[in-house]
Design goal:
211 residues, mainly alpha, elongated
Length: 211
């Protein structure tokens, strides 16, 4: 099977089971998405949504977040992993967006990655979600699924995976495909005990072939 045939089969199946996959982080303002994605590192979207509901309600503007104390933010997000660092980043991001970007979220990868706690994955999520940029963010789910379905090699880095997916997926498909990969990895092709028996991709799956 060629790579073109492989990705075609994967996209066809994803469109069948995940036609409307979307970002599961709750936000109502662009800067809230930046903060929510930053907070989601090494934790679940559900956990982030629980704390951001409180955080964004109590501090409903960038100015409010920029002027609150570390202790106030930490108390709200303390259930998340790396909470101390993330609490500092919340305040720093708010201040930087106000002082350097006129309270707007930049759409360039370089500018986004200047924000505390924002790496390549987070910047790609933001660019795809807010600005519909043709990017693919590689988190643990996307990386796992890509390697299991032979879209990437076992030893590939997240950047390797990203570059390979960009070559395989057309620009107009990338944002949706990114969300489909995340949903598939989160709910179907999970790390432990993936639901292989009900999956129509098991015939092209590295994990299933080794069972």
């Amino acid at each position: 099977m060629t790579n073109k045939e492989r990705i075609g089969k994967i996209i066809f199946y994803f469109d069948e089971i995940l036609p409307s996959a979307h970002c599961e982080l709750n936000y109502s303002k662009p800067y809230e998405l930046v903060i929510a994605v930053m907070l989601s590192a090494q934790t679940t979207d559900k956990s982030v949504n629980r704390v951001t509901e409180v955080l964004f309600s109590k501090y409903p503007s960038l100015e409010a977040l920029a002027n609150c104390s570390f202790e106030e933010v930490f108390e709200i997000i303390k259930t998340l992993g790396l909470a101390k660092t993330k609490a500092q980043n919340v305040i720093k991001i708010a201040k930087m967006l106000i002082e350097q970007y006129d309270s707007n979220v930049p759409n360039s990868q370089e500018e986004l990655m200047k924000l505390p706690g924002v790496g390549r994955k987070t910047s790609n999520v933001v660019r795809g979600e807010l600005y519909n940029e043709p990017v693919i963010a590689v988190d643990t789910h996307v990386e796992r699924v890509s390697k299991r379905l032979y879209l990437a090699a076992i030893n590939d880095t997240p950047l390797d995976v990203e570059l390979k997916l960009l070559k395989l997926v057309s620009k107009e498909r990338r944002v949706l495909f990114h969300h489909q990969m995340i949903h598939f990895g989160r709910y179907n092709c999970v790390s432990q005990r993936p639901k292989c028996d009900e999956c129509k991709l098991k015939d092209i799956c590295r994990h299933y072939s080794k069972r």
